[in-house]
Amino acid sequence: MLTVKKLLQSIGPAIVVAAVVLGPGSILTSSKVGAGYGFIGVPVVVAAAILMIAMVALAARVGVSYENSVCDELASRLGRPVAFLIGIILFVLVALFQSSNNIAVVAGLMPLIEVITGGDTISVNTQVGLLIAFNAFVIASLYLMRNLYQSVEKLMKILIGVMVVAFLMNFVAAYLTARDFEPVASSGTGDLFALLGMIGTTFSVGGAFYQAYLVKEKGWGIGDAKRGLVDSVVSISVLGLVTVIILLTAARTFYGRPDPVELAGVGDVARQLEPLFGTWAVVIFSLGIIAGAFSSFLVNSMIGGTVMSDSLGKGSRLSDGWPIHMTAVALLVGMLVAIFSLTKSGSTVSLITFAQALTVLGIPALAAALIYLGTRKELTGERRVPRWILALASVGFLVACGLAVKTALAVWGKVSGA
Fold first, then answer.
1. Which residues 6+ apart lie within 8 Å of 60 measured at CB?
2. Could you tell me which CATH number the domain at 14-416 has?
3. HSE-up of 216 (CA within 13 Å, CB side)?
4. What does the domain layout of the chain look like in residue ranges?
5. Cβ–Cβ contacts within 10 Å for residue 9, how many?
6. Residue 36 to residue 250: CA distance in whole angstroms
7. pTM (two decimals)
8. pLDDT digits (tens, 9 = 90+) for 165-213
9. Which of 20-29, 202-211, 278-287, 311-320 has the lowest mean pLDDT?
10. In whole angstroms, how far apart are CA 230 and each of 75, 206, 218, 233?
């Protein structure tokens, strides 16, 4: 019992990272991968989770080993422009990720409103109004919440726990329920953007990068390095587990159907909950999307705001003014990108997965920055980063480069109509 208590006490900063990564976009993309690719997506998730553990562990070690923040350390060694470049890259990634969170909120609200109104759809103007109101609520919470980090950490632990239980129950129900169709041979082809988006959300170097800041918010020092490793392994393993459960549930429900399912909206994706919740599936899934969006909304924007402020030399702690102000800017930018996306034609799930996939493009620079700081000669003795962490992080960097190239080519093909 004591061991479990110590384990729970060690979990903290990385569970915040896991919560922001496991947002509505991740739920929708992993569902689409399960429907389109089936069980082949499982080893992809496992590999991405292992690389994510290494990157989060590296960021935690960097955070406790250096006295100053990540961008201040980069600025002192490579110059402030380099630190600013890292900050703007992460800020843009956050805006893209945030736009998908905004779209997911609308996607989650629409089925609820249709149920309340008896099937009436809501106009684009109403959707825009909902986004503005939701973002206003999150920004108000950001400025009014006391002890921001402690409050966020507690909230993330609760939300992750609820999500694990809910999706695990549905997973069991899905596999105990007989299929309503005879599986047919599948071509094995699926949505490439969904697959890239799932990898990008599971192996999220942007989220891992923020771990270096969270351990400082937690007050951890070099003596807490082992706790940081436990935190990384347990929290990201939970992230991978939930993603696999969602993927397998979607594969069981949709993969191999004689008539392929496109999953163009949240209502389509929610059908995977029917084994457990029946006709209430859409409502419950929509509520889950909204709940996940709130946590991802706040923490994701905090990542962009904090690192951007730090890159400008304006402070890196949540108690400082600039990180909070820049976080509000990140929220507004993400909202504006989402509003622009809503005016374009296409399914909501496609817009979400497209934005999620684009987040892969800036990952190599962030991974390179962490590896650079983790390999400095002054890191000796207990401050030295274990070789296995650096080795896996280096593999992650190479994978990130490959994903960036693949994503760039896929985006170009989609834009050019190839």
1. 13, 14, 211, 212, 215, 220, 225, 228, 229, 231, 232
2. 1.20.1740.10
3. 20
4. 14-416
5. 11
6. 9
7. 0.83
8. 777 777 887 777 766 666 665 555 567 777 877 887 788 888 899 999 9
9. 278-287
10. 30, 20, 15, 5
